[in-house]
């Protein structure tokens, strides 16, 4: 793994390449409206004291949000994810990430924007479940 200026716990990247790490860094500058809404809640409020990272590289993927302590990924999906081919690709990605022992929660842009409190409550529930066992 390449050194990128700070000491890092590289185990949380699951072997992500330097290129994936740099791509994730660029994606942080171009978050969608829904991602920005959720990031404000996850970053500032730290649900149940858990730290999240945004646009986090994991293996060959980039997770929208990731809590390493609970091994929980949050994905925020736009309408394109309703297309059957994209939905199949998402399922394959989910399967691969779950094989690493990670849990993936998916929310639509609309859920995040219009039901933010409900989304955060669901995330908190999963954080509690994953931190207790």
Overview of this structure, please?
With 133 residues, the chain is an alpha+beta fold. It starts with 17 loop residues before the first helix and ends with a helix. The chain has a 4-stranded mixed beta sheet, sandwiched between helices. 47% of the residues lie in helices and 19% in strands. Mean pLDDT is 88; it is low at 1-8. It has a single domain, classed as VSR Endonuclease (Endonuclease, Chain A, 3-Layer(aba) Sandwich). The longest helix has 17 residues, at 116-132. It is globular, with a radius of gyration of 14 Å. α3 links the parallel β3 and β4.
List its traits:
single chain; 133 residues; alpha+beta; Endonuclease, Chain A; 4-stranded mixed β-sheet; 4 strands; globular; disordered N terminus
Adjacency order of strands in the biggest sheet: 1-2-3-4
**What is the gyration radius calculated from CA atoms?**
14 Å
Order of helices and strands: HHEEEHEHH
What is the CATH level 1 assignment? Answer: Alpha Beta
Largest sheet: 4 strands, mixed
**Helix count from the secondary structure assignment:** 5
CATH superfamily, by name, is VSR Endonuclease
Strand segment tally: 4
Second-tier CATH architecture: 3-Layer(aba) Sandwich
Mean pLDDT across all residues, rounded?
A: 88
Task: Characterize the overall form.
Answer: globular
Measured by DSSP, the beta-strand proportion falls in 15-25%
- Helicity, in percent? 40-55%
Structural class: alpha+beta
- Give the termini separation: 30 Å
What's the CATH topology name? Endonuclease, Chain A
């Amino acid at each position: 793994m390449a050194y990128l200026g700070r000491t890092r716990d590289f185990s949380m990247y699951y072997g992500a390449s330097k290129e994936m790490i740099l791509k994730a860094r660029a994606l942080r500058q171009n978050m969608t409206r829904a991602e920005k809404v959720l990031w404000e809640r996850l970053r500032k409020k730290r649900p149940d004291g858990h730290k999240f990272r945004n646009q986090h590289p994991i293996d060959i993927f980039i997770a929208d949000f990731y809590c390493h302590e609970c091994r929980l990924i949050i994905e925020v999906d736009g309408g394109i994810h309703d297309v059957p081919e994209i939905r199949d690709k998402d399922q394959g990605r989910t399967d691969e990430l779950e094989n690493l022992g990670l849990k993936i929660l998916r929310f639509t842009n609309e859920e995040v924007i219009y039901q933010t409190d409900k989304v955060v409550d669901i995330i908190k529930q999963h954080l509690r479940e994953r931190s207790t066992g």
